[in-house]
Amino acid sequence: MPIQSKALPQSFSLRRSIQRFTAPVEGQAETSHPLLVLTVVVLLALFAIVEIDLHATQLQAIGLLGYGTGIDPIFLSP
Asked: Considering the entire predicted model, what is its pTM?
Protein backbone atom coordinates (compact mmCIF):
# COMPACT_ATOMS: atom_id res chain seq x y z
CA MET A 1 0.00 0.00 0.00
CA PRO A 2 1.68 3.26 -1.12
CA ILE A 3 1.90 6.18 1.27
CA GLN A 4 0.60 9.39 -0.24
CA SER A 5 2.04 12.74 0.67
CA LYS A 6 -0.29 15.37 2.06
CA ALA A 7 1.99 18.21 0.96
CA LEU A 8 0.73 18.31 -2.64
CA PRO A 9 -2.98 18.70 -1.84
CA GLN A 10 -2.13 21.29 0.81
CA SER A 11 -0.08 23.35 -1.66
CA PHE A 12 -2.95 23.31 -4.17
CA SER A 13 -5.35 24.35 -1.43
CA LEU A 14 -3.04 27.19 -0.40
CA ARG A 15 -2.65 28.31 -4.01
CA ARG A 16 -6.44 28.36 -4.49
CA SER A 17 -6.96 30.42 -1.35
CA ILE A 18 -4.33 32.95 -2.43
CA GLN A 19 -5.81 33.21 -5.93
CA ARG A 20 -9.23 33.81 -4.43
CA PHE A 21 -7.87 36.91 -2.68
CA THR A 22 -5.88 38.22 -5.65
CA ALA A 23 -8.04 37.31 -8.63
CA PRO A 24 -10.79 39.79 -9.53
CA VAL A 25 -14.36 38.58 -9.46
CA GLU A 26 -15.91 38.37 -12.90
CA GLY A 27 -18.26 41.25 -13.65
CA GLN A 28 -16.77 43.55 -11.02
CA ALA A 29 -14.36 46.36 -11.76
CA GLU A 30 -11.45 46.77 -9.38
CA THR A 31 -11.47 50.17 -7.72
CA SER A 32 -9.33 51.63 -4.98
CA HIS A 33 -10.80 53.29 -1.96
CA PRO A 34 -10.49 57.10 -2.27
CA LEU A 35 -8.96 57.39 1.20
CA LEU A 36 -6.23 54.93 0.19
CA VAL A 37 -5.44 56.97 -2.92
CA LEU A 38 -5.32 60.20 -0.88
CA THR A 39 -3.02 58.56 1.68
CA VAL A 40 -0.63 57.39 -1.04
CA VAL A 41 -0.52 60.86 -2.63
CA VAL A 42 0.15 62.57 0.71
CA LEU A 43 2.87 60.09 1.66
CA LEU A 44 4.59 60.47 -1.73
CA ALA A 45 4.49 64.27 -1.39
CA LEU A 46 6.01 64.09 2.10
CA PHE A 47 8.67 61.69 0.85
CA ALA A 48 9.56 64.09 -1.98
CA ILE A 49 9.82 67.02 0.46
CA VAL A 50 12.08 65.06 2.80
CA GLU A 51 14.31 63.89 -0.05
CA ILE A 52 14.67 67.44 -1.43
CA ASP A 53 15.47 68.76 2.05
CA LEU A 54 17.97 65.97 2.63
CA HIS A 55 19.81 66.60 -0.65
CA ALA A 56 19.42 70.41 -0.77
CA THR A 57 23.16 71.16 -0.81
CA GLN A 58 23.77 68.72 -3.66
CA LEU A 59 20.87 70.18 -5.65
CA GLN A 60 22.26 73.69 -5.10
CA ALA A 61 25.68 72.55 -6.29
CA ILE A 62 24.31 71.41 -9.65
CA GLY A 63 22.06 74.46 -10.00
CA LEU A 64 18.65 72.86 -9.57
CA LEU A 65 17.87 74.55 -6.28
CA GLY A 66 18.72 78.13 -5.42
CA TYR A 67 17.88 79.63 -2.05
CA GLY A 68 17.95 83.39 -2.20
CA THR A 69 19.99 83.68 -5.36
CA GLY A 70 18.83 86.55 -7.50
CA ILE A 71 16.53 88.08 -4.85
CA ASP A 72 17.04 91.73 -4.07
CA PRO A 73 18.12 92.09 -0.41
CA ILE A 74 15.60 94.88 0.16
CA PHE A 75 12.81 92.33 -0.11
CA LEU A 76 14.41 90.00 2.43
CA SER A 77 14.51 92.42 5.37
CA PRO A 78 11.42 93.36 7.42
From this structure: 0.46
